[in-house]
Amino acid sequence: MPKKIYIVEDEKDIADIIRHYLKNAGYTVEEFDDGEKALRRIHVSVPDLLLLDLMLPGMDGLELCRLLRSEPATKKLPIIMLTAKGEETDKIVGLEMGADDYITKPFSPKELVARVKALFRRNQPDVEAAKNIQYGKLFLDVETHTVSVNNKELTLTAKEFALLEYLLKRKGKLVSRDNILDAVWGMDYYGGNRTIDVHIRHLREKIPLLKTSLVTVKSFGYKLKDEK
Ligand code: CA
Questions:
Q1: What is the pLDDT of residue 143?
Q2: From ligand 1's centre to the CA of 54, what distance in Å?
Q3: 109 C-alpha to ligand 1 centroid (Å)
Q4: pLDDT in tens, 62-71
Q5: CA distances from residue 198 to 30, 54, 167, 213 in whole angstroms, order as listed
Q6: pLDDT of residue 186
Q7: Does domain 4-122 have CATH number 3.40.50.2300?
Q8: 80 alpha carbon to ligand 1 midpoint, in Å?
Q9: Distance 94 CA to ligand 1 centre (A)
Q10: pLDDT value, residue 224
Q11: Domain 132-224 is of which CATH architecture?
Q12: Which element (helix H / strand E) includes 217?
């Protein structure tokens, strides 16, 4: 999946150049010429990164940044602030307001793309490591290796946990027993498919919602349905 970047910039020429370079770098891009429009869109679909001009008509970049930081869904959204030359104080304020980086106009588009890439790299390990999974009333915490349903913690074996994590990450997709075996037990495991079925049975016993959500696909594998 290509990463999605929103540009909030009222100067169309600048927005067009940025969009062109980011698209060439393989990103999906959407453009907004004011803060309110961007905010409405973000409330529908949060991007992977936001390029935010400081001086905008209506709600300015700082205000939008502050707002986004106050909302849980966008608290950690990577934001690069675009400032005009000479707005030194604003730069500092921008970072205090929670922007991750800033770039001063006029800038070279290549420099901007490099900053975007750098920010994605910087955020990567964090995002991956702390990726907790919510599935209906089930919550899996990757970092602490705990699973709870309705905030009640369950006791799973290491393999049950790994199996559940694997299935949750492939929600909505058909997964074969072979794939599960490779991913959870490792290539060199010769225990056979029965092992998986036994573990699945245990998971269904411990987590009743899986009895209906986790479907057995005959002679192939399993599918965890999308939550309703
Ligand atoms: Ca502007």
A1: 77
A2: 6
A3: 17
A4: 899 999 998 8
A5: 47, 57, 15, 17
A6: 78
A7: yes
A8: 14
A9: 14
A10: 96
A11: Orthogonal Bundle (1.10)
A12: strand 214-217
CA separation for the pair 34, 56 (Å, rounded): 6
- Interval between CA 9 and ligand 1 midpoint (Å): 6
> Within the chain, which residues score under 70 in pLDDT?
85-97, 124-130, 187-191, 228
CA–centroid distance, 63 to ligand 1, in Å, is: 14
Distance from the alpha carbon of residue 56 to the mean position of ligand 1, in angstroms: 5
pTM above 0.90, yes or no: no
Locate the domains of the chain by residue range. 4-122, 132-224
Task: Kindly report, residue by residue over 65-88, the tens digit of the pLDDT.
Answer: 999 998 888 988 999 999 876 666
Ligand 1: centre distance to CA 14 (Å)? 9
- Topology alike, domains 4-122 and 132-224: no
User: Which DSSP string do the residues of 144-201 spell out, in sequence order?
Assistant: TTEEEETTEEE---HHHHHHHHHHHHTTTSEEEHHHHIIIII-TT--S-HHHHHHHHH
